[in-house]
Write a structure and sequence with these properties.
single chain, mainly beta, four-stranded antiparallel sheet, 6 strands, about 45% strand
Length: about 70
């Protein structure tokens, strides 16, 4: 079943945040998806270079592992 129709090109990292949001690192951005409503929110619009993974701690802080230059 589709949760949301959102163009996310080449997702490289997925993690659940507190409250159930799905955090996705893809391309040069990080997007939060709400699986209950289908709403999306771009958290980082650009600047993520070659993401390889994403993690979220219990306080909701998002960490992105990147293979690109910082």
């Amino acid at each position: 079943r589709a949760i949301v129709d959102h163009p996310i090109a080449g997702p490289q990292g997925l993690a659940f945040a507190p409250g159930g949001r799905l955090i996705v690192a893809a391309g040069e951005s990080v997007v939060a998806l709400d699986p209950q409503t289908g709403a999306t929110k771009t958290i980082v619009a650009h600047g993520v270079v070659d993401p390889r993974g994403v993690a979220v701690d219990e306080e909701g802080v998002i960490y992105v592992a990147s293979a690109g230059s910082q």
